[in-house]
Fold this sequence. Notes:
alpha/beta; TIM Barrel; five-stranded parallel beta sheet; 7 helices; 5 strands; 46% helix
Amino acid sequence: xxxxxxxxxxxxxxxxxxxxxxxxxxxxxxxxxxxxxxxxxxxxxxxxxxxxxxxxxxxxxxxxxxxxxxxxxxxxxxxxxxxxxxxxxxxxxxxxxxxxxxxxxxxxxxxxxxxxxxxxxxxxxxxxxxxxxxxxxxxxxxxxxxxxxxx
Length: 151
């Protein structure tokens, strides 16, 4: 875990400085702001974009998963992995868990179409799982086998 750094900064210029300071480490960025996510994907060298799905509100006829085809193409171009927050899945209640899993499934479909890598990320020690469990969950969520081999 010392090789990774988790950033949640909301100010772009401060975030840029933090990334510059931690250049050799694996950088995981997470934000609730979709515009900031896109700006960071386009302009900053991050390794993993962790999309938070718990606090999102769905529209009447579509899900708000925080990820779209434009972000998928930018992530593919920048070789950025999309992170799935495993703690959100484990610590949510039944109805909320179903909504989160459906949003993840939508993001898996987008990542599969654009050949973007995905990875499960758990910040708490309690939420860590072995690779077999993560592969099984990935397959249930619709990940292809090339994506689950690297979990």
